[in-house]
Design brief:
- The structure holds 3 protein chains of 3 kinds.
- Chain A is built from 5 helices and 5 strands, in the order ββαβββαααα.
- Chain A is of the alpha+beta class.
- Chain A folds into 2 domains: 71 residues, Roll (Ubiquitin-like (UB roll)), CATH 3.10.20.30; 76 residues, DNA polymerase, domain 1.
- In chain A, helix 2 packs antiparallel against helix 5 and helix 3 packs across helix 5.
- The longest helix of chain A has 17 residues.
- By secondary structure, chain B is α+β, with helices and mostly antiparallel strands.
- Chain B is built from 12 helices and 12 strands.
- In chain B, strands 4-5-8-6-7 form a 5-stranded antiparallel sheet, with no helix packed on it. A 4-stranded antiparallel sheet of chain B has the order 9-10-11-12, sandwiched between helices.
- Chain C is of the alpha+beta class.
- Among the domains of chain C are: 216 residues, Aldehyde oxidase/xanthine dehydrogenase, molybdopterin binding domain (Aldehyde Oxidoreductase, domain 4, 2-Layer Sandwich), CATH 3.30.365.10; 139 residues, Aldehyde oxidase/xanthine dehydrogenase, molybdopterin binding domain (Aldehyde Oxidoreductase, domain 4), CATH 3.30.365.
- Helices cover 26% and strands 25% of the residues of chain C.
- Chain C has a 7-stranded mixed sheet, with helices on both faces.
- In chain C, helix 11 runs parallel beside helix 19.
- Chain C is globular and about 80 Å long.
- The chains are: A alpha+beta, B alpha+beta, C alpha+beta.
- The interface between A and B is medium-sized, with 31 and 30 residues.
């Protein structure tokens, strides 16, 4: 499995999900477990560029895929991804627990061309629950970052 | 989750070669299978990962004069975004777009979506004893429980679990077929014949044979399907299973409904085609009275329980609203 | 400027971005289950699937035979392992007196009956599913008001509880010209923070480290020490980030001691991440309530009588009580009030705090009744509130420390466009969507706790704040940095803050919206001590620009100490004069109305909270919310295109984090009104929808425009900094505004929550 550009050769229990592999084997704990059943979106990562739920993806089935997590999106020397900066600018979180999943989903939303309007963003981001309810600020952050992502 | 042997099938033949077909589950997007394995509801001895078949016809969408062929491993997101789906079959595009979440639509295959399991909590949670679908003969806990989400059509004293999907409802309206493969050969089946009403045997959910695999969905050409839509009613504005849904298509010529299709979701134990409602519409001019009469006949056999009685009225209004909208579509 | 960072007005703090923001957007913030712990074993709970009865037998054969299983704790091997917890409401620490694995007795659905520990999470899950437990089951009574439950007056079981009462409400009601009598219900709700209930325990040289998300690390430390029978000084709790709590992580739940015991027994760290469905019974919840309310008024709208009897559900083991009439009786001037709260014991797990525990259900009921009264009177509901506004406590006559309710109404009404509202109900629509508007009041008691803090200033002009307080997403890290910056005349960037560690000076529980007021005041006090010492040093120095000046006239600004003419010197020079490389001050703060022994209690991990109605004064924050609903004419889906709330809550420390708190809470109000309900299977007293698909919380698409107005309010009485809490204010009353809007749209009065499609068809 390739994670954030780094190839990992792992021997795993066949039942292990990508989420538990990231967290328990690779020390990449930015990706969060919120429900473990595909209902909250906290575990969202990109697989070959597409946002997926790592809790419902068996690691075995992800063999050969390129996984990108929250730890893998910032630029060199710590420059934040435009989406990360936009989340800070708009205070698009409170507790921060769902935030890595929100940001990965938001990047997917922009890449999939779903960030053209507020209703489109809201629909496209509805798989990511935020119990602190920062939703309007998440939408504002995505609007800001989508422009910057297109520009770059 | 119980342990299992994992095999990745690089070809259709490899996928279909199984020693014990009844112990095998095919893995595509995993959004139903992995979920239910974690819940200990499904305990396959072998999981055959068929995602490599995406590279073949099972991963393709073809549109031509005969209609539309959707490979079973096409993702919901891919199908929803396809121009031929969007322009020719709005009901189909809507049913995909309104389902699940963006992540799940990226992951889930069309074939897997058709086979998704009920959301009945008594089925999904093994700590409840009574579920005829999970443990034949154990009873149905939902009959006298909070059953707001449960079905009012196609139920039996053994099971009232709602079929949760949206896509299959649209496909039933469109008279779609599925292509199947097994070690014994190939066959076709109407989507309408895929799911079985619970009757006495709710544990038998589909008419697929053990080890049989869905290869593709075939949707016949139907030019008037451009006047079609999928209306989904739910509490939340997104990311929720339907309390009621209607897939409707109208062949409206010179102000008269020549043909009509009405299928219902969220209300029934299987994707539900409302033939009587269609008959009530055909040959009529669209009006609220006609739509109300069609809605009335569609729900006439409903069997409401304490928590889901509202679904009878909601179902009728969903049909009426969908038909009004379809009749006024600019195409 | 982004909406996220409203410009501060009249003494509000700057919208400083969260100092922990970068950690949160990069995945670097470590929540409890994220701490790297070498060689951890993984635990999975097994819980009962009956609500009442006893365990007949536990078959462990298959589980123990599973390779990789290390330990299974059950009543067979752990019956005496955990000592009886002390209940927080009786001065203790725990969410329940339930003693896990201590006996065969089953008190409620989802009670812990075993814990499996294995080499991996996958093995532990598998083994747990192979444990067969059989029960002798008796028919439970789990429903509020159902047969078999036991109703007791709150005043009979809780010495602290007094039902607020004034005048003769019965007589005033009987003789009044306008009156209503209504019954209302609120549902069971679960906090469902997205972070799961995780606990990792690690023993080293007889000392225990606990990684667990906590709203009260001191309580957790002392509670676990008590349950394990060890010295609290041998326990360290680490909880720097909490992934949402809302009350669910405030007291010690039965799981923690079990994880500690397993880790000690195995000589290996043990990590438990409680599954989402198990969290519904392993921790607490908001219990369902019922209300019978009678209101009477004169023709001009003046309230004449208010009677309110309420019933709240609790468990058999613990008498949990919220008692919200303490709040409702402070909303409006009412000469005659009679209230009574009852608790109803049932075969359920013990409820607990959930965001505005008393106010959400009680103010919903009261405000819904007030809205109905406005209709009976033919009055604008805003005007009804105006004629009943008051500046003294209707029960005791004591003054409010500050109260800006009607200013909130006026500002919110203007922003909302309330003057354009349509009468009568059912007359406003837009195509197929019926439109309804409603409004209601919010209030929340200003509560404070004793607290201690340490502040260290170093030569470079950087300062560090340490306090065992908690940032649940509330912005505590940031506002405490601002408080220290203000206290020392530094920029907030110069301040670092450590929270969420039980080895730090004790901070209060992050509950009751007490953190900002309590902790900013104690930090300000510590900063004052530093200023005092440095001022004295520079003023008493033999030479230097400030030598001989009156030290009380000195200011700390821009990293310097200056006199009124701007002469001064740097903090490094001041430290030199003091003859020290750094200065560190420890402060303890006792709010008005608290007893000094409250400090000793806090050091022992017990709560001591004061506020709301006090002897000589009464402290509440107020707000007003206006909401628009759109309801489909045919299928009755309910959508919330916009909501406006105006809130006055003393001094706002940071308009950015405050805006997020208010906004999030208003959305909680929407959720409470339209989405959230834990369903109970009445036959078995078991929860049914124990997951995030079936227990509905709003998704992004559910939330329209949310406008937050912060009304400036100066309160010189409530505490030295004039801060009131804000975290819980804004989800109070929202549901009453929504219920009114639903009525206005459809003509249907729904007197229970949540309001759903089927209620309006």
């Amino acid at each position: 499995m390739k994670v954030n550009g780094q190839l990992h050769r792992l021997s795993l229990d066949v039942r292990t999900t990508v989420l538990d592999t990231l967290r328990e084997r690779l020390g990449l704990t930015g990706t969060k477990k919120g429900c473990d059943h595909g209902q909250c979106g906290a575990c969202t990562v990109l697989a070959d560029g597409q946002r997926v739920l790592s809790c419902l993806t068996l690691a075995a089935a992800a063999e050969g895929k390129e996984i990108t997590t929250i730890e893998g999106i910032a630029g060199p020397v710590g420059a934040l991804h435009p989406m990360q900066q936009a989340f800070i600018d708009h205070d698009a979180f409170q507790c921060g627990y769902c935030t890595p999943g929100q940001i990965m989903s938001a990047i997917g939303c922009v890449r999939e061309g779903q960030a053209g309007s507020e209703p489109a963003i809201k629909e496209s981001m509805s798989g990511n629950l935020c119990r602190c309810a920062a939703y309007p600020k998440i939408v504002a952050a995505i609007r800001q970052a989508s422009g910057e992502m297109r520009g770059s | 989750m119980r342990s299992f042997s994992y095999m990745r099938a690089d070809s259709e033949a490899a996928a279909l070669q199984q020693a014990e077909p009844s112990d095998v589950q095919f893995l595509a997007g995993g959004t139903t299978l992995v979920d239910l394995m974690k819940l200990d509801v499904l305990r396959p001895a072998q999981v055959v990962d068929i995602t490599p078949l995406r590279r073949g016809p099972a991963g393709e969408i073809r549109a031509d004069g005969d209609g539309l062929r959707l490979g079973a491993l096409v993702s919901m997101a891919e199908a929803a975004a396809h121009p031929a789906v969007q322009s020719g079959y709005p009901v189909l595009a809507d049913s995909l777009r309104l389902a699940a979440s963006a992540q799940l639509r990226n992951m889930a295959s069309l074939g897997g979506n058709l086979l998704q399991r009920t959301r009945c909590p008594y089925y999904r949670d093994t700590s409840w004893h009574a579920c005829n679908k999970r443990e034949p003969g154990s009873g149905c806990a939902a009959l006298e429980a909070p059953n707001r989400m449960h079905a009012v059509l196609g139920t039996s004293p053994a099971c009232i679990a709602t079929y949760p999907g949206d896509l299959a409802v649209a496909l039933v309206a469109l008279d779609a077929m599925i292509d199947l493969a097994s070690e014994g050969g190939r066959r076709s089946l109407r989507v309408a014949d895929l799911h079985r009403p619970p009757g006495e045997t709710p544990e038998r959910e589909t008419n697929l044979a053990p080890g049989e695999m869905i290869l593709a969905i075939e949707i016949p050409a139907m030019p008037w399907a451009r006047r079609s839509l999928f209306l989904k009613i739910r509490d939340r504005a997104s990311y929720e299973f339907a309390l009621a849904s209607a897939a409707v298509a109208l062949d409206l010529q010179d102000g008269v409904i020549r043909q009509a299709r009405v299928a219902l979701g969220g209300l029934a134990t299987v994707p539900w085609r409302a033939h009587e409602a269609e008959q009530a519409l055909e040959g009529k001019r669209p009006s609220d009275d006609v739509f109300e009469a069609a809605a009335e006949v569609a729900l006439v056999d409903a069997q409401p329980l304490r928590g889901n009685g509202y679904k009878v009225l909601l179902g009728k209004r969903t049909i009426i609203r969908a038909l009004r909208q379809a009749a006024s579509m600019e195409i | 400027m982004s909406k996220a960072a409203p410009p501060p007005q009249d003494g509000m703090g700057e919208p400083v971005p969260r100092i922990d923001a970068r950690a949160k957007v990069t995945g670097a913030a470590l929540y409890a289950a994220d701490f790297p712990v070498a060689n951890a074993a993984h635990a999975v709970l097994v819980i009962s699937n009956v609500a009442k009865g006893s365990i007949r037998g536990i078959d462990l054969f298959a589980a123990k035979a599973t390779p990789g299983v290390l330990l299974v704790l059950t009543r067979e091997n752990a019956a005496d392992a955990v000592k009886r917890p002390s209940y927080f409401a009786e001065g203790g620490h725990a969410s329940t007196k339930e003693r896990p694995l201590s006996s065969d007795r089953i008190w409620h659905d989802g009670q812990i009956v075993a814990m499996v520990v294995a080499d991996s999470y996958e093995i532990a899950c598998d083994a747990a599913s192979r444990i067969g437990v059989t029960y002798d089951e008796t028919r439970p009574a789990g429903k509020l008001g159902g047969p078999g439950t036991e109703t007791v007056a709150a005043s009979a079981v809780n010495k602290k509880h007094k039902d607020p009462m004034v005048g003769d409400a019965e007589r005033a009601y009987e003789s009044a010209p306008f009156k209503i009598e209504v019954e209302l219900e609120t549902p069971t709700q679960h906090h469902n923070p997205i972070e799961l209930f995780a606990t990792t325990c690690l023993w080293s040289d007889g000392k225990l480290t606990i990684y667990e998300p906590s709203q009260f690390v001191y309580g957790l430390k002392h509670g676990v020490a008590e349950q394990l029978g060890i010295d609290p000084t041998d326990i360290r709790v680490v909880s720097p980030f909490v992934g949402g709590a809302f009350g669910s992580k405030g007291s010690v739940t039965p799981r923690t001691a079990l994880v500690a015991i397993a880790a000690r027994q195995l000589g290996r760290p043990v990590k438990l991440v409680v599954a989402r469905d198990q969290g519904f019974t392993v921790a607490t919840y908001r219990a369902e309530t019922r209300h019978r309310i009678r209101l009477a008024a004169a023709r001009n709208g003046k309230l004449l009588a208010y009677q309110h009897e309420a019933w709240e559900l609790t468990s058999r083991i613990d008498d949990y009580l919220v008692g919200g009439t303490e709040a409702t009786t402070r909303l409006y001037a009412v000469p005659n009030a009679a209230t009574k709260v009852n608790i109803v014991r049932a075969d359920r797990n013990t409820p607990g705090f959930m965001r505005s525990p008393p106010e959400v259900p009680y103010v919903y009921a009261y405000e819904a009744a007030i809205n109905e009264l406005a209709e009976v009177l033919g009055m604008d509901p805003v005007e009804l509130r105006r004629v009943n506004d008051t500046h003294k406590d209707p029960i005791t006559g004591a003054p409010f420390t500050s109260r800006s309710l009607m200013r909130c109404y006026d500002e919110a009404a203007r922003a909302f466009g309330w003057s354009h509202r349509r009468e009568p109900p059912g007359t406003a629509s837009d195509g197929d969507w019926l439109i309804g508007w409603g409004c209601a009041s919010a209030l929340y008691p200003t509560q404070m706790s004793v607290a201690a803090a340490r502040v260290r200033l170093v030569r470079s002009g950087a300062a560090h704040v340490e306090i065992a307080a908690h940032d649940l997403g509330t912005g505590a890290y940031t506002v405490l940095a601002q408080a220290a910056a203000e206290g020392l005349g530094l920029r907030p960037e110069a301040i670092s803050v450590t929270l969420g560690e039980s080895s730090l000076p004790p901070g209060p529980v992050a509950g009751g919206s007490i953190t900002t007021a309590s902790c900013c005041n104690v930090v300000a006090k510590a900063c004052g001590q530093i200023r005092e010492k440095l001022s004295r040093a520079v003023a008493q120095a033999k030479d230097g620009p400030l030598a001989g000046t009156n030290r009380r006239m000195l200011q700390f600004a821009n990293g310097r100490i200056v006199d009124s003419r701007g002469n001064g010197e740097g903090l490094d020079q001041a430290l030199d004069r003091l003859g020290t490389g750094a200065i560190e001050e420890y402060a303890e703060w006792i709010p008005h109305g608290a007893k000094p022994e409250g400090l000793q209690k806090l050091y022992r991990g017990s709560l001591d909270i004061v506020g709301g109605p006090m002897e000589d004064r009464v402290a509440f924050a107020f707000g007003a919310e206006f909401v628009e609903l759109r309801i489909n004419r045919y299928t009755r889906e309910i959508r919330v295109p916009r909501i406006v709330g105006a809130f006055a809550s003393g001094r706002i420390m940071n308009t950015r984090t405050a805006h997020s708190q208010y906004m999030g809470a208003m959305i909680w109000g929407i959720a409470s009104a339209l989405h959230e309900e834990t369903e109970l299977d009445e036959r078995t007293a078991r929860y049914v929808n124990k997951n995030l698909a079936d227990y509905q919380v709003p998704v992004n698409a559910d939330i329209g425009e949310v406008e937050v107005i912060m009304v400036p309010e100066v309160d010189r009485l409530v505490n030295p900094l004039g801060i009131k809490g804000i975290g819980e204010l804004a989800n109070v009353g929202t549901a009453a505004a929504i219920a009114e809007a639903a009525y206005r749209a459809t003509g249907k009065r729904v007197r229970k929550l949540p309001i759903r499609i089927e209620d309006l068809l």
